[in-house]
Amino acid sequence: MGQNEMKRLKEKIGFIGCGNMGSAILEGLLKNKIARPNQILVHDPAHRRMFLLRKRFSVRTCSSNAEVVKGAQLIVLAIKPQELKEVLLPLRPLFQSHTIISILAGTPLIKLRNLIGLKSAIVRAMPNLGAKVGESITALTGHLRGLQKAELVFSGCGETIRVREKYFDLVTAVSGSGPAYFFLLMELLANFAQEKGLPFEQANHLAVQTALGSGKLAKLAHLDPERLRKQVTSKMGTTEAALSVLFDAGIESIFKQAFAKAVWRAQEMSRFTS
């Protein structure tokens, strides 16, 4: 956790919505002792989810979003983008000098500011599913005071980087959606091995552990992925044979098209929240 390792948040922290990503952020805060359970307030429309969060983490669950805003100074906004106006407009009079951290995809700062007002420090964040195991990379942009708080919040579930907002749709396509691309490759590797006779458990274990080792090596080797790929690719070997099929089939072009479509979709989501 680097420079944030021994730091703690003093504020009351409110979660408006607490689904998979919200609960991963919440767990990271508590597991790393960045906050204590008595600092956390949560409201989610799913009553069973609130019951489970209260039972598992001993946090305070609230009967309304307004109760969260009144009781907390730092708010994690973890609702669906299409719910933005419905949720925030009734809360607008309650926002004062809050720090607001939004993890809503395709929702620019200006739209949040128009709904929340000018009194609060607003931060836009894009974590990914790695947060569930403390290995997310979260892109952040927004108010400087809010950024410092947000970096501490997300240090509980991985690493953070500051990115200019004009790149956020790109970050969404590459990092926010990124885990799915790697899961797909693991799925294809495991399925192929299973089709050729390997038991599912062994096929899946081979694919997942290979991905884990590759990721760790890419992070620790201080070499870019292209150079690492070339190290694995011996002349006239099996890897070269496999990669030649992929490159001949246009895999680079296919993935570029896929990433561009994800960027386009993030931009579309932004328009939907207008």
What's the short version?
The protein has 274 residues and is of the alpha/beta class. It has helices at 20-31, 47-57, 65-71, 84-88, 109-116, 144-155, 168-176, 178-195, 200-220, 225-232, 238-248, 251-272; strands at residues 13-16, 40-43, 60-61, 74-77, 99-102, 121-126, 136-142, 158-162.
Walk me through the structure.
This protein has 274 residues and is α/β, with parallel strands linked by helices. It folds into 2 domains: 167 residues, 3-Layer(aba) Sandwich (Rossmann fold); 93 residues, ProC C-terminal domain-like fold, CATH 1.10.3730.10. Helices cover 53% and strands 13% of the residues. Helix 7 crosses helix 12 and helix 8 crosses helix 9. The N terminus is likely disordered.
Can you give keywords for this protein?
274 residues; alpha/beta; Rossmann fold; ProC C-terminal domain-like fold; 2 domains; eight-stranded mixed β-sheet; 53% helix; elongated; disordered N terminus
Describe how the helices and strands are arranged.
Blueprint: E1 13-16, H1 20-31, E2 40-43, H2 47-57, E3 60-61, H3 65-71, E4 74-77, H4 84-88, E5 99-102, H5 109-116, E6 121-126, E7 136-142, H6 144-155, E8 158-162, H7 168-176, H8 178-195, H9 200-220, H10 225-232, H11 238-248, H12 251-272
Parallel strand pairs: 1-2, 1-4, 2-3, 4-5, 5-6, 7-8
Antiparallel strand pairs: 6-7
Helix pairs in contact: 7-12, 8-9
Strand content of the residues, in percent?
5-15%
CATH architecture of the largest domain: 3-Layer(aba) Sandwich
The gyration radius over C-alpha positions equals 21 Å
The CATH superfamily name of the largest domain is NAD(P)-binding Rossmann-like Domain
Element pattern in H and E: EHEHEHEHEHEEHEHHHHHH
- Mean pLDDT, all residues: 93
Structural class of the helix and strand makeup? alpha/beta
* Sheet of most strands: 8 strands, mixed
CATH topology of the largest domain: Rossmann fold
Give the strand tally.
Answer: 8
**SS summary, helix count:** 12
Strand order across the largest sheet: 3-2-1-4-5-6-7-8
Number of domains: 2
Low-pLDDT ranges:
1-6
